[in-house]
Amino acid sequence: NGQAPRIHTAGVSGVEELELGPGTVFEIGSITKVFTTTLLADMAARGEVKLDDPVSKYLPPNVRVPSRGGRQITLLDLATQTSGLPRLPGNLRPASAANPYVDYTVENLYSFLTSYELTRAPGERYEYSNLGIGLLGHALALRAGVSYEALLQERVLSPLGMRDTRIVLTPGMQSRLATGFNAMGEPVSMWEFSSLAAAGALRSTIADMLKFLSANLDSAHGPLGAVMATARRARQQSDRPGNSIGLAWNIVDLFGTKVTWHNGGTGGYRAFIGLDEPRGRGVVILTNSTISPDDIGFHLLEPRVPRDLPAKPPP
């Protein structure tokens, strides 16, 4: 709405009692997914991919991608969480629950896809899938011939001036990293990702996330305005009545207020981003604990939404 963003911080980072601030680094977990789908929308706008392309088109020819009833899994199916793939691959067996994705390799991913049988046709029904968005980002990176992080940095992060949003931390980001804490208040290690990075591997700051928020609220200007608007457009019903999904973005009506949002969580962090597009405002919340801030985010966007909503596991 043209007003300068307001930044509120509370608590300490856990690193020598360093106070939290706009440049403090947090894991943002599954909010990574809307960066992945922004990348998809950009590549589609450039004609590099089509939303209705089967994902198998961008994978090695020896990888069998499951299909059902003659219907192949498309990039759009992956982006709208309607691929028919499960939330997690059945062969995800981490050596440590404290870092569940670090040892899940591309070979593991291809092995699961080759052996899995869909229980319903792609596009038939919404089912949240870390596997699906992880596969989407992997396929886009193969199409571009660079790593997922390099592609994201070139197409999304650099154009938006997001210098503190990365998977691999720069030395400066490492020095400003907030320690994550589990439900018992104990410090925990960060999560590392291998083949499924596009589902939840990004780390960022409030300052950077406000740049992403502002770019999404201003579709008429900026290097990615129109692309971001495409990603946020409702395309499919989600798992709750009246709710829909764009390219990974959740869309819900709260007392007449249209809120477009996503959340995220890793072993010691929780995050929320929400947009009230008609009124040109939004909110980002990053925390270094496992207490979900979703209720605060929704309440800030629509005060009639109560605080302390019933707990729900983060994506």
Describe this structure in words.
The protein has 315 residues and is of the alpha+beta class. Helix content is 28%, strand content 13%. The protein is built from nine helices and ten strands. The chain has helices spanning 32-45, 75-79, 106-115, 130-144, 148-157, 171-175, 206-217, 225-232, 294-301; strands spanning 26-27, 180-181, 187-188, 203-204, 236-237, 244-245, 250-254, 257-265, 270-276, 281-287. The strands form three sheets. It has a six-stranded antiparallel beta sheet, sandwiched between helices. Strands 1-4 form a two-stranded antiparallel sheet. A hairpin with a 4-residue loop joins strand 9 (270-276) and strand 10. The longest helix has 15 residues, at 130-144. It starts with 25 loop residues before the first strand and ends in a 14-residue tail after the last helix.
Distance between the termini: 30 Å
- What's the Cα radius of gyration? 19 Å
Assign an overall shape: globular
**Which sheet architecture does the biggest sheet show?**
6 strands, antiparallel
Helix coverage percent: 25-40%
Number of helices: 9
What structural class do the secondary elements suggest? alpha+beta
Overall pLDDT metric: 93
* Major beta sheet, strand line-up: 5-6-7-8-9-10
Q: Encode the helix/strand succession as letters.
A: EHHHHHHEEEHHEEEEEEH
Uncertain ranges: none
Proportion of residues in β-strands: 5-15%
- State the total count of DSSP E strands: 10
